[in-house]
């Protein structure tokens, strides 16, 4: 069966996913798109033989759309996700699920009332081979109980429009999701520290930032977010356990000897670093849609948890204080165990 997909939002990552669904994943086809930028939507639609429709609602309701992908701006996600849930269609929504915890809760309520899971959120790190192996090692018991996790999330540079809050909402959000999943544990408190600022950041931007987390099981996590590190795109994660540690591998790269040096290149952007993860994410999601089964990836609850935790980080960024998180204490049975 070919899964026919409608895409809402044909900007940068929307076009990436449309390319992926057209040329990389087998058994999927994009049949309809919508973007408030009509010219862009028409151009993208024409390139894959799809129709550009006049609204998101018409994409959701189209007879030749089996499932919906949402890649518009974050504040517009909730409206489109709620429309897809109301139509009973599976929906893949890029992060964030919604920009307010209140809107995330509305989605949870609508999905729960529907009775089966329809929503998957685009936290692609859960599909990265390195993180998957790390989770397997932790679950095997080979390093004993996890005690401490050290992480770094570095971008070479960011646009001038990037704000200090985005370090929490746009950047650290990936670690928040992947750590909840890796540890099968919930974050209970956060604190943001402000180290000396790099001279390479714009005046308005606190860069780097150090974020500290404590989980319900007492695991302590430190995360360095440094988005003007200059040298490349660098994702590090090391989990220290009672009997050993497990570290995320660097992406495979050849070593080059020449001019008196032995060197390996550092990737420059997230597209290259997580390309395989995005492919696997869509392959598994499309397979669940084709089989008519619930998606197994990040759920609406995970989207809600990420928003609650990034809100707490932003509060701490401004106050410097530790912020407790109590809203995640009672996870609905509908969404299974923590980090699943
Ligand atoms: N998983 C990841 O690592 C990752 C990476 C990049 C972006 N994202 C997420 O993907 C989303 C899109 O990001 P982007 O970089 O492609 O942005 P973008 O600005 O390039 O594209 C967004 C598109 O949405 C369109 N749009 C805005 N409002 C709309 C509406 N109401 N209905 C339909 N279309 C609308 C805009 O015209 C634009 O074409 C964001 O939520 C972002 O956080 C996720
Ligand atoms: O939107 C991007 C993207 O999510 C990247 O994975 C992250 O490294 C960047 O910091 C963020 O701005």
Question: How is this structure best described in words?
Answer:
Helices cover 37% and strands 23% of the residues. The chain is α/β, with parallel strands linked by helices and 340 residues long. It folds into 2 domains: 3-122, NAD(P)-binding Rossmann-like Domain (Rossmann fold, 3-Layer(aba) Sandwich), CATH 3.40.50.720; 126-268 and 303-335, Dihydrodipicolinate Reductase, domain 2 (2-Layer Sandwich). Helix 5 packs antiparallel against helix 10 (300-319) and helix 6 packs across helix 7 (164-183). The longest helix has 20 residues, at 164-183. The mean pLDDT is 97. Bound molecules: nicotinamide-adenine-dinucleotide and 1,2,3,4,5,6-hexahydroxy-cyclohexane (INS). 1,2,3,4,5,6-hexahydroxy-cyclohexane binds next to helix 7.
Q: The CATH topology of the largest domain is what?
A: Dihydrodipicolinate Reductase, domain 2
At the first level of CATH, the class of the largest domain is Alpha Beta
Mean pLDDT: 97
Radius of gyration: 20 Å
The CATH homologous superfamily of the largest domain is named: Dihydrodipicolinate Reductase, domain 2
Strand order of the largest sheet: 12-11-7-10-9-8-15
How are helices and strands ordered from N to C?
Answer: EHEHEHEHEHEHEHEEEEEEEHHHE
How would you characterize the largest beta sheet? 7 strands, mixed
**Range of strand content:** 15-25%
Molecules bound to protein: nicotinamide-adenine-dinucleotide, 1,2,3,4,5,6-hexahydroxy-cyclohexane
Reported CATH architecture of the largest domain: 2-Layer Sandwich
| Terminal CA distance | 28 Å
General shape: globular
* DSSP summary, beta strand count: 15
**Residue runs with pLDDT of under 50 for 5 or more positions:** none
Domain count: the total is 2
Count of helical segments? Answer: 10
SSE class: alpha/beta
């Amino acid at each position: 069966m070919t899964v026919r997909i409608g895409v809402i939002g044909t900007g940068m990552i929307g076009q990436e996913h449309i390319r992926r669904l057209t040329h990389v994943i087998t058994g999927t086809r994009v049949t309809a798109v919508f973007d408030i930028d009509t010219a862009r939507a028409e151009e993208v639609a024409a390139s894959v033989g799809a129709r550009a429709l006049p609204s998101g609602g018409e994409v959701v309701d189209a007879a030749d759309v089996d499932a919906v992908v949402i890649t518009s701006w974050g504040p517009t996600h909730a409206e489109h996700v709620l429309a897809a849930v109301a139509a009973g269609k599976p929906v893949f929504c890029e992060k964030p699920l919604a920009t307010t915890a209140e809107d995330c809760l509305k989605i949870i309520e609508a999905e729960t009332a529907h009775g089966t899971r329809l929503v998957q959120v685009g936290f692609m790190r859960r599909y990265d081979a390195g993180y998957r192996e790390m989770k397997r090692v932790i679950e095997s018991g080979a390093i004993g109980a996890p005690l401490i996790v050290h992480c770094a999330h570095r971008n070479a540079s960011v646009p001038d429009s990037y704000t200090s809050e985005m370090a929490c909402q746009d950047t650290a959000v990936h670690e928040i999701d992947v750590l909840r999943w890796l540890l099968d544990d919930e974050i209970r408190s956060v604190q943001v520290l402000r180290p000396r600022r790099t001279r390479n950041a714009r005046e308005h931007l606190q860069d780097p930032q150090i974020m500290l987390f404590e989980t319900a099981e007492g695991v302590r996590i430190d995360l360095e977010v440094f988005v003007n590190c200059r040298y490349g795109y660098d994702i590090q994660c090391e989990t220290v356990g009672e009997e050993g540690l497990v570290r995320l591998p660097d992406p495979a790269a050849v070593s080059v000897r020449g001019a008196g040096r032995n060197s390996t290149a550092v990737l420059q952007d997230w597209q290259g670093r997580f390309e395989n993860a995005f492919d696997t994410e869509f392959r598994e999601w499309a397979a669940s849609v084709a089989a008519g089964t619930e998606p197994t990836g990040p759920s609406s609850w995970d989207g809600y948890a990420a928003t609650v935790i990034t809100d707490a980080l932003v509060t701490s960024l401004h106050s410097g204080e530790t912020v407790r998180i109590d809203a995640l204490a009672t996870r609905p049975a509908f969404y299974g165990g923590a980090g699943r």
